[in-house]
């Protein structure tokens, strides 16, 4: 298992800041990066498994779309002990998938020590089938998709969900009220500073994410859920400008 390193990708001045990419360099520091950058991350990941336990229907699949290093999938495995549990975990970064395979080999086991039924693949989630699902997870993935692909993806998820199935979607969000947006944006910067990031690191990472991470408001998300056909949606968690939402299909 590869050693996890402290995130120092943007610690030194760069001649040119390239667009952010989930490459091998990011994979090496990803656990540290996301914990120090995303307020409430551990709470959202931990509760993802609890939510999955409530909504999972035996005989159906759970999908982890944009699985990165498998934190959401492992959260599900910790909550659901049924050996018939089947999870499809997808990510379009080959570096993430290769590291995730190592993580699952050590940690994704049943109570009897048998491997879980996890189908891990490097794939574009916009082109991947979603079938016979009762839980679909999109944790910090949707925000990186082109805007025009977001509603079609939600419609495909809806079509692949069993009645009563749920989508868990966690994202960075923006706010229509300028004062609220400015306040929470500034507090997020303070959060990063408190976690040891320098002004240079914050500035260069922001430049790398510009036009790559496109956050949206709660109202935009909820309108899109409705357009996709979900019967109800709600915000179940918010910490500064990061949040997690549920969208539920009618029974």
UniProtKB/TrEMBL annotation:
It comes from the Bacteria. CDD domains: AdoMet_MTases (cd02440). Keywords: S-adenosyl-L-methionine, Transferase. The keyword Methyltransferase does not apply. Residues 62-165 form the Methyltransferase domain. One of its GO terms (molecular function) is carboxyl- or carbamoyltransferase activity. It holds the Pfam family Methyltransf_25. Signal peptide: none annotated. InterPro entries: CmoA (IPR005271), Methyltransf_25 (IPR041698), SAM-dependent_MTases_sf (IPR029063). Belongs to the class I-like SAM-binding methyltransferase superfamily. Cx-SAM synthase family. Catalyzes the conversion of S-adenosyl-L-methionine (SAM) to carboxy-S-adenosyl-L-methionine (Cx-SAM). Homodimer. PANTHER family: CARBOXY-S-ADENOSYL-L-METHIONINE SYNTHASE, TRANS-ACONITATE 2-METHYLTRANSFERASE-RELATED. This is Carboxy-S-adenosyl-L-methionine synthase. It comes from Oceanospirillum multiglobuliferum. The lineage of its organism: Bacteria, Pseudomonadati, Pseudomonadota, Gammaproteobacteria, Oceanospirillales.
């Amino acid at each position: 298992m590869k050693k996890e390193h402290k995130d120092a990708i943007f610690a030194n001045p760069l001649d040119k800041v390239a667009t952010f990419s989930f490459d091998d360099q990011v994979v090496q520091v990803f656990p540290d990066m996301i914990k120090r950058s995303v307020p409430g991350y551990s709470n959202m990941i931990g509760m993802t498994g609890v939510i999955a336990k409530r909504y999972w229907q035996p005989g159906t699949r759970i999908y982890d779309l944009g699985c990165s290093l498998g934190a959401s999938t492992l959260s599900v495995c910790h909550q659901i002990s049924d050996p018939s549990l089947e999870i499809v975990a997808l990510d379009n970064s080959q570096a993430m998938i290769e590291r995730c395979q190592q993580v699952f080999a050590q940690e994704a086991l049943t109570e009897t020590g048998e491997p879980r039924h996890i189908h891990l693949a490097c794939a574009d989630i916009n082109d991947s089938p979603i079938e016979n699902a009762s839980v679909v997870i999109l944790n910090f993935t949707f925000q990186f998709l082109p805007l025009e692909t977001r509603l079609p993806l939600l419609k495909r998820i809806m079509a692949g969900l069993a009645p009563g199935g749920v989508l868990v979607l966690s994202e960075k969000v923006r706010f229509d009220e300028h004062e609220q947006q400015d306040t929470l944006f500034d507090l997020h910067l303070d959060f990063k500073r408190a976690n040891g990031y320098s002004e240079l690191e914050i500035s260069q990472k922001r430049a790398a994410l510009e036009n790559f991470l496109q956050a949206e408001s709660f109202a935009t998300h909820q309108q899109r859920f409705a357009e996709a056909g979900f019967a109800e949606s709600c915000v179940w968690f918010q910490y500064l400008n990061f949040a997690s939402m549920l969208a539920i299909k009618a029974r």
